[in-house]
Amino acid sequence: MKSLTDMQDLVALCKRRGVVFQSSEIYGGINACWDYGPLGVEMKNNVKQLWWRSMVDRDDVEGLDAAILMHPRVWEASGHVAGFSDPLVDCKKCKQRFREDKIPDENRKSKKCPNCSGELTEPRMFNLMFKTFMGPVEEDAAVVYLRPETAQGIYVNFLNVASSSRQKIPFGIAQIGKAFRNEITPGNFIFRTREFEQMEMQFFVKPGEDEKWFEYWKEQRLKWHLANGIRKEKLRFHEHRDGELAHYAKKAYDIEYEFPFGWQECEGIHNRTDFDLGRHQEYSKKKQEYYDEPTKERYIPYIVETSAGCDRTLLVTLADAFRQEEDRVFLALHPNVSAYKVAVFPLMKKPELMSVAEKVYDEIRKKYRATFDESGSIGKRYYRQDEIGTPFCVTIDFDTVEKGVLTVRNRDTKVQEKLDASKVLEYLTDQISSWKLTV
Ligand code: GAP
Questions:
Q1: Residue minimizing CA distance to atom 2 of ligand 1
Q2: Does domain 2-69+146-320 have CATH number 3.30.930.10?
Q3: Could you give the CA distance from residue 255 to residue 239 in angstroms, rounded to a whole number?
């Protein structure tokens, strides 16, 4: 059994089966933008749900959904207008464009193109924020930005949430939403795109307690990825050294995943100190302090942030689940992530089989997202479900009509079990809730 070695195998599967399509494909596509198809949107929603439930189903975290467009001063305060830039170099010969910090050291020193050895231009700083105009007039005064991170929507609402929810520090605010970056070198499918979704949580703590909470969230976030069935040996922490640290961070760790194209960041955990609220206080001239009733202290809270890309987490999940055997390709997805949990097949299109199969299907659908397939051989139908990661297939045959016995087939082991039709929901519930990665 082989894991994913060539991203193209996954890209092709995603297109073929309606997981991810190139955006605006009939017009030749638009670079670094992707559309989620019928199965992809289910999987992505599942990832978001899993994140939301694990973050917000706690007493100390509240949810939020802030607007994408914010007051332009927000991005001055956050440091994005001045500093959210990448150094850009162009090859004078082949015209290819690179991020200077991402090309090999020898090319940076020799100023030679990694592609054709042509001469590279001097680096120019390129701001990654997308600009647009608010209102009918396209003038500088009307410039607004598409947010490059969801975090700032949380910071500017810190006091609103604290006072309306009556939360006491330490507490967090979680948000899922779109973010936009005019990336210079997007690529690797949905890994680095120009429009993407983030799942961010900002945890507000008393200064001095930040390091303890940083360690806590670092561990929690790794556990979450493991609970979603990602292989342990494919995940690791990477600590940001001095040169890598973002302008706001005192300490930062990435959770990295080993993709076929190398170890890459999937999520960041950052100790942002009081930088963000301090800056918003300075720029808005509105106090961002928290009053701690028991100790009668006033302070600007420190922030521990967990920031995951939703698209990137889905890519990790799909890449990690990809398996190839001699006779099939399958996605060993956690049932919590797969688009369908169960597929129901009548052995043939005969009316007596169809009516029983439809009854079983309706029963299962009360609890699980399921699909019905009556076309082609059973083998082909298994193959179709394997490829999209459906963990269980239920086949209705003449034994079901005559004796009330049906067959459940397990995606990972290919093992088929006969059981009483009246027990099928109980059996599936047990299997789905106890699912562990075994392949
Ligand atoms: N608020 C902090 C922040 O935005 P970041 O490391 O720039 O930190 C956090 O981004 C996460 O967002 C990344 O770990 C990644 O999963 C996701 N992300 C960032 N840029 C992305 C892009 N261009 N395409 C897809 N996901 C991206």
A1: 307
A2: yes
A3: 9
pLDDT digits 0-9 by tens, 22-78: 999 999 999 999 999 999 999 999 999 999 999 999 999 999 999 999 999 999 999
pLDDT of residue 113: 96
Handedness of CA 328, 333, 339, 341 (dihedral sign): positive
Query: pLDDT tens digits, residue range 303-353?
Result: 999 999 999 999 999 999 999 999 999 999 999 999 999 999 999 999 999
- CB of 177 closer than 6 A to ligand 1? no
**Distance from the CA of 13 to the center of ligand 1, in angstroms?**
25
- Candidates 3.40.50.800, 3.30.980.40, 3.30.2290.10, 3.40.1190.10; CATH matching 340-433: 3.40.50.800
| Token pair 């967990």 in the structure block, residue | 306
Q: Where are the domains of the chain?
A: 2-69+146-320, 340-433
Cβ density class 187-222: b for 16+ within 10 Å, e for less:
ebbbbbbbbbbbbbbbbbbbeeebeebbeebbeebb
Q: Report the amino acid identity of residue 289.
A: E
What are the beta bridge partners of residue 174?
Answer: 63, 201
Cα 158 to averaged position of ligand 1 atoms, centre (Å): 21
* Gap between the Cα atoms of 10 and 285, Å rounded: 50
- For residue 256 and ligand 1, the question of a CB distance below 6 A is answered with no
Q: 46: CA distance to ligand 1 center in Å? A: 19
